[in-house]
């Protein structure tokens, strides 16, 4: 596919006319570099995989530069292009070929090249026939070059197979493409290319190994990280379609919500973020609100957990792959998989049920009708436990800043949702001073410290700020809620647009840290920051090892914590940079918005409503990465520790 589609990058410079950062000649040069890297990547991936991946990364980087004008100005291209580039990078870096030196394997490799080249060019020709391109774009020459490359791969396979009738067909195809490209209009030529490549697919023989043939569609579900990304992506896509239906639009029942706004809301719900560009109670019908609640529940609890329990409940036996994936995602062993997943769902529904009852009774006492009180209670409870931050009140919880029952019920649900179920049920034991596992103790202690620090600083900096006018007790209640909700929930009982600069900095740090492993919260996690803090303290004291409760922590744990923190910071920096380049909004608001999206917090100081469509696309990508990135990274780092008997000389490097 890389070889046959290598001429395609020459269309990238024509997709946008913005030359603010990259001139037309520079973008054309980047397109040529992309095409060249694609060719080298396709030729070297099987024999020199590391070199091939290096060329692949170069192709992706050059493609980004060549198409930056379109990525910066066209929302559809920005969303589709960013998604495609990230997916290609993930597949490229994860791919590991099986190389065999037998002649049969060489024949199979050439056959695979011919088949996938034919598939790729056929799809490309179909897309070219229905898509509009700028008049200056050389779409005919690009399609002709791609088809010539596909025919060349087919001819190479036929010649090495010594099949003269197939070789003759390949030569005739090459000649026919050359003639049609110079004599026929584009539509006729595109249709001919489509038919020719479909004919190639029919002429190519099937694989000799039927089991190998069935494996192509399993590429997304062979590893936990892949199935996590693909399941969340499909859920976001389905949610976008549902929320774009006219039945979900309260403002105009005939037209439906704009696709970009529907996608923004769906991703925010699935990734349990809470950032909104529409007013949930006013712009969505009851059906739309139900769709949002379902997306929040599925995104918060995890699709694999729910499907695994459902299959078990209906008596279906789990496949080994399904069981292995679910066990990895639930951080449990195969032996107690069902018990672990059942505990997750039982705790979730128990806490959500109790919270829904308390909130519904309170709303009922405020004079709301029974149906409205029940719906608002259930919606708020599920949103709070899943750390989503969606609310059925236009001003969030500001109307209830004098009602501690609502504030503390929501706060309790957020805390319990941000902790893993196994951690939550050990809270009473920890409070009584009894021994708990080190990981649980580290999560609880770090959470308690962050909650106390957040409450103290919010009170100290905002006593005469956004809290001014409230009674001392109401100030304490609101400060506590804000400290809790900074752990990736997104609720607010005061107007955050007027916060002071010191409060702003504290909020940025707390949002970046997020919740605990195994919970519904985002961020780099409390255990990560706890391990880093203890490592810092041990280093100051001159300790060689990290000791907690008379246990020496494995050095690999420290390496993982550093990796997660550095990766989180780098992604945050890239998102902030992209927002500042594309949005005409003050930098502090964009930094807050980026941190809130990556930490799946959902708080905003006013920048969300000012974002243009490109800004919305960037935030959509940030929310998805913020939800998926840490989970995927944890899975990639959760493999067995590398064991080696090699001993190398110690080298000391000065860093001060």
Q: Key terms for this structure?
A:
656 residues; mainly alpha; two-stranded antiparallel sheet
What would you say about this model in short?
The chain is mainly α. Helices cover 66% and strands 1% of the residues. The two termini are 49 Å apart.
Number of helices: 27
Strand count, sense and closure of the main sheet? Answer: 2 strands, antiparallel
Uncertain residue ranges: 208-217, 309-316
Radius of gyration: 28 Å
Query: What series of H and E elements makes up the topology?
Result: HHHHHHHHHHHHHHHHHHHHHHHHEEHHH
Structural class: mainly alpha
Trace the largest sheet across and list its strands: 1-2
What's the number of extended β-strand segments? 2
Percent of residues in helices comes to 55-70%
Please state the overall shape, judged from the principal axes of the Cα atoms: globular
Mean pLDDT: 79
Strand composition percent: under 5%
Structural domain count: 2
Overview of the molecule:
It is a single chain. This protein has 27 helices and 2 strands. The protein is mainly alpha-helical. A two-stranded antiparallel ribbon has the order 1-2. It is globular and about 85 Å long. It folds into 2 domains: 213 residues, no CATH class; 333 residues, no CATH class.
Element layout with pairings:
Elements: H1 24-44, H2 49-66, H3 68-73, H4 75-94, H5 103-130, H6 139-161, H7 164-183, H8 186-203, H9 210-213, H10 224-243, H11 259-270, H12 280-283, H13 286-301, H14 303-313, H15 320-330, H16 337-365, H17 370-385, H18 404-418, H19 421-424, H20 427-431, H21 438-462, H22 472-485, H23 501-513, H24 526-540, E1 547-548, E2 551-552, H25 555-582, H26 587-598, H27 613-636
Antiparallel strand pairs: 1-2
Helix pairs in contact: 1-2, 2-4, 4-27, 5-6, 5-8, 6-7, 6-8, 7-8, 10-11, 10-13, 10-27, 11-13, 11-27, 13-17, 14-16, 16-17, 16-18, 17-18, 18-22, 21-22, 21-23, 21-24, 23-26, 24-25, 25-26, 25-27, 26-27
């Amino acid at each position: 596919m890389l070889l046959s589609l290598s001429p395609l990058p020459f269309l990238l410079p024509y997709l946008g006319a913005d030359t603010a950062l990259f001139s037309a000649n520079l973008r054309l040069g980047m397109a040529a570099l992309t095409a060249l890297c694609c060719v080298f990547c396709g030729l070297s991936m099987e024999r020199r995989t590391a070199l091939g991946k290096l060329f692949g990364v170069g192709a992706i980087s050059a493609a980004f530069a060549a198409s930056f004008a379109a990525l910066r100005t066209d929302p559809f291209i920005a969303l589709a292009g960013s998604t495609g580039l990230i997916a290609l990078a993930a597949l490229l870096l994860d791919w590991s070929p099986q190389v065999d030196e037998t002649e049969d394997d060489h024949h199979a490799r050439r056959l695979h090249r011919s088949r996938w080249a034919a598939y790729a060019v056929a799809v490309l020709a179909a897309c070219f026939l229905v898509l509009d391109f700028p008049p200056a774009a050389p779409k005919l020459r690009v399609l002709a070059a791609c088809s010539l490359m596909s025919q060349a791969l087919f001819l190479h396979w036929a010649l090495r197979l010594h099949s003269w009738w197939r070789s003759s067909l390949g030569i005739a195809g090459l000649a026919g493409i050359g003639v049609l490209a110079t004599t026929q209009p584009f539509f006729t030529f595109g249709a001919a290319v489509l038919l020719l490549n479909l004919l190639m697919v029919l002429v190519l023989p099937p694989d000799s190994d039927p089991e190998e043939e069935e494996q192509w569609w399993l590429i997304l579900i062979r590893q936990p990280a892949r199935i996590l990304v693909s399941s969340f992506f499909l859920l976001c896509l389905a949610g976008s379609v549902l929320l774009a239906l006219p039945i979900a639009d309260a403002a105009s029942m005939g037209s439906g919500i704009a696709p970009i706004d529907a996608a923004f809301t769906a991703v925010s719900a699935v990734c349990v973020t809470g950032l909104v560009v529409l007013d949930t109670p006013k712009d969505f019908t009851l059906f739309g609100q139900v769709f949002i609640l379902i997306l929040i529940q599925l995104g918060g609890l995890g699709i694999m957990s729910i499907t695994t329990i459902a299959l078990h409940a209906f008596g279906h036996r789990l496949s080994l792959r399904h069981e292995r994936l679910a066990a990895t995602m639930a951080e449990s062993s195969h032996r107690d998989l069902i018990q672990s997943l059942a505990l997750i769902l039982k705790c979730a529904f128990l806490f959500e049920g109790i919270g829904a009852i308390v909130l519904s009774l309170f709303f009922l006492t405020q004079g709301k009708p029974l149906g409205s009180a029940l719906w608002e209670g259930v919606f708020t409870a599920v949103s709070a436990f899943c750390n989503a931050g969606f609310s059925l009140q236009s001003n969030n919880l500001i109307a209830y800043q004098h009602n501690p029952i609502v504030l503390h019920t929501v706060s309790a649900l957020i805390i319990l949702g941000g902790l893993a179920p196994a951690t939550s049920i050990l809270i009473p034991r920890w409070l009584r001073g009894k021994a708990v596992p080190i990981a649980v103790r580290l999560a609880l202690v770090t959470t308690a410290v962050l909650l106390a620090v957040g409450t103290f600083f919010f009170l100290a900096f905002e006593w005469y700020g956004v809290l001014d006018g409230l009674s001392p007790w109401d100030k304490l209640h609101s400060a506590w809620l804000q400290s809790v909700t900074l752990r990736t929930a997104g609720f607010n009982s005061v107007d955050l647009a007027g916060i002071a600069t010191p409060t702003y900095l504290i909020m940025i740090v707390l949002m970046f840290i997020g919740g605990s492993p195994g919970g519904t919260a985002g961020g780099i996690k409390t255990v990560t920051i706890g391990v880093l803090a203890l490592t810092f303290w041990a280093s100051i004291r001159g300790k060689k090892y990290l000791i907690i409760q008379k246990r020496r922590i494995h050095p690999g744990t420290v390496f993982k914590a550093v990796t997660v923190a550095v990766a989180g910071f780098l992604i945050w920096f890239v998102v902030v940079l992209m927002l500042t380049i594309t949005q005409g909004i003050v930098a502090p608001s964009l930094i807050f918005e980026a941190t809130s999206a990556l930490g799946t917090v959902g708080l905003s100081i006013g920048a969300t409503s000012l974002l243009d469509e490109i800004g919305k696309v960037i935030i959509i990508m940030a929310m998805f990465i913020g939800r998926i990135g840490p989970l995927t990274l944890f899975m990639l780092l959760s493999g067995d520790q590398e064991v080696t008997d090699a001993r190398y000389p110690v080298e000391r490097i000065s860093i001060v």
